[in-house]
Specification:
By secondary structure, the chain is mainly beta. It is 12% helix and 39% strand. The chain has a single domain (2-568), classed as Capsule assembly protein Wzi (Porin, Beta Barrel).
């Protein structure tokens, strides 16, 4: 408890550093990863850890192209003092996606898991006055939401019973209703009071914590952003021990309100589906990253999240991320195990001369994760993300070749945990699990998933052509829980993914897209029995129910150039 109080005092002291500033953040993932490539190439501030994907227009000298396509043009308003007021029209962003057979996309924010056509368009304004700033960027979304094959009706009744062991512990529908989706969202909006090195505000922006490029354990852009209070650093704060970055949040999660497939299915005279408590859920968390002054290039940090139902939040401490964190159960909800927790520690080491980096994140589910308890009770569910990335300069064209590897494992490594259905992001008490509006807030591969990814790309500034190949395993925990008992080792659901991505800037347009081909092996863990099966098992392994699906994406970011119009006049 003393440690928590000291940390709280330290964070409150930071508020005393105040000066006039604005806070408009870069949230577009292509641009954030462009800044990270620039840092590897020695062309961007090395103090930033990239373990928090938030960059503000007043906190660091950003490349002009990022300023243009993230912040838009400043507009002079007659009668308003430009030294006190600032008005910007944000770039217009449009994304179109088409999926042919079944869902393959992850890390797509507020997009609906969809087969068919889907589009999203967003834009808005930014206004600041002295220390206050408002960013209003709503998004309109339409999705065809065509029907597609979900969990197979022909699975055995006992397999359906096992399937609902997961469904009853997480709010993650396979399909969001039967009708097209039309919705308007708050998108990447925020109102802030900005201090010298930090900001306090209310936001619906997506948050990403952790060093991974494609996956992270606690906070990603896989789900839509949720409304939250935030206190975070605007830039690394220099101390005698090194540079510090942080963020504290407290927010509200949304339930999907969508029933799973076949919710009236019965087994052994009992309904398999157990309706969830639709009470509001609150979430709180913190991230702290340090670059030690005596270890150049090294960034270390930790993060922690906790969530619970509103009815169980009977103490102000249940809304704060600092308590229930150091292994001490403080509130009634924590003592009754009604407040669920997960956390991680992470590091990133940048090798400046080699233009390379290595990074890793290690997490524990349903248990607070802090350095003091790193090796304590490792019988709880654990997971990791690890990766490597390097640039190979091409002198002739001021471009480079980029090579990246990333490995993610969420599947459990102990039979006892699998038998107790302790998969990542599931909730035994808060049975919506670690989700917002029906999608996991953390890694998009979901409970029990694994991923091995390799990427090679040609970069020339923000222009880029990339090839990704990935092997993605769907919910291995369910596979072992269900099919190990019958010793059927053919049913792993594995996706072999090939993805080509292009990013290109031309005048006022930043545009690009991707084409993804996925071969799903043993889709939905379904294995077809063949009539020519031989008793000696010589043809035991054959193709299961395999599908190939394609997904196409096109995005466009258009910057309205008011300066040019003013000059013409």
């Amino acid at each position: 408890m003393r440690c928590a109080n000291k940390l709280l005092v330290f964070l409150l002291i930071l508020v005393s550093f105040i000066e006039n500033t604005t806070a408009q953040s870069v949230t577009d993932q292509q641009q954030v990863l462009y800044l990270r490539r620039l840092q590897l190439d020695g062309k961007f501030n090395s103090e930033f850890s990239f373990q928090q994907r938030a960059f503000f227009n007043s906190s660091v000298d950003l490349p002009e192209i990022v300023q243009q396509f993230s912040f838009g043009d400043k507009i002079a308003v007659k009668g308003l003092d430009s030294n006190q007021y600032q008005l910007r029209i944000l770039p217009i962003q449009k994304l179109d996606v088409y999926n042919t057979h079944h869902i393959v996309t992850i890390n797509d924010g507020s997009l609906t898991p969809n087969v068919g056509y889907q589009t999203q368009i967003s834009g808005g304004v930014f206004l600041s006055h002295k220390k206050w700033s408002l960013q209003f960027r709503p998004a309109f979304q339409f999705a065809e939401n065509r029907p597609y094959q979900t969990f197979y009706t022909n699975h055995a009744d006992m397999t359906w019973q096992d399937y609902y062991q997961w469904i009853n512990r997480i709010d993650m529908p396979e399909r969001f209703g039967n009708n097209p989706v039309n919705q308007v969202l708050m998108g990447q909006s925020a109102i802030r009071y900005n201090l010298r090195s930090s900001s306090i505000g209310i936001s619906t922006e997506n948050i990403w914590w952790g060093p991974g490029y494609n996956q992270s354990l606690l906070m990603t852009n896989n789900a839509a952003g949720f409304p939250h209070l935030t206190y975070q650093s605007l830039r690394p704060l220099r101390t005698r021990f090194g540079s510090v970055e942080w963020q504290l949040i407290s927010g509200k999660l949304k339930n999907s309100g969508v029933e799973p497939i076949e919710p009236r299915r019965v087994y052994d005279t009992h309904f398999l589906y157990e309706p969830k408590n639709n009470d509001n859920r609150f979430i709180s968390g913190m991230m702290l990253s340090l670059q030690p002054s005596f270890l150049k290039g090294l960034h270390i940090g930790f993060a922690k999240m906790a969530y619970l139902y509103q009815a169980d939040a009977n103490s102000p401490l249940d809304y704060l991320p600092l308590f229930g964190f150091f292994g001490i159960k403080t509130t009634a909800a924590e003592k009754a195990n009604r407040k669920q927790m997960l956390g991680s520690i992470f590091l990133r080491y940048q090798m400046e001369k080699e233009k390379a980096e290595i990074y890793a994140e290690f997490g524990r589910n349903d248990k607070p994760m802090v350095p003091l308890f790193f090796m304590d009770e490792l019988t709880v569910p654990t997971a990791f993300v690890a990766g490597f990335r390097k640039l190979f300069p091409l002198r002739a064209h001021r471009s480079n070749i980029e090579l990246g590897l990333e490995f993610t494992q969420l599947s459990l490594n102990r039979a006892s945990l699998i038998n107790d259905v302790k998969s990542w992001y599931l909730g035994n008490f808060v049975r919506q699990g670690y989700t917002n509006n029906g999608k996991v807030i953390g890694s998009g591969i979901g409970p029990g998933g694994n991923s091995q990814l390799m990427e090679i790309a040609w970069n020339n500034g923000i222009n880029r052509i990339a090839l990704q190949v990935e092997r993605r395993i769907h919910n291995n925990d369910f596979y072992y829980y269900t099919f190990d008992r019958i010793k059927d080792f053919r049913r792993h659901w594995v996706d072999a993914i090939c993805n080509i991505k292009v990013d290109r800037q031309y005048k006022n347009f930043l545009f690009g897209g991707g084409l993804t081909m996925v071969r799903s092996l043993n889709y939905q863990w379904w294995y077809m029995e063949y009539e020519d099966f031989t008793p000696d098992g010589s043809n035991y392994f054959k193709n299961g129910l395999d599908y190939i699906t394609f997904q196409g994406q096109i995005y466009c970011n258009y910057r309205l150039d008011f300066r040019r119009k003013t000059a013409r006049k």
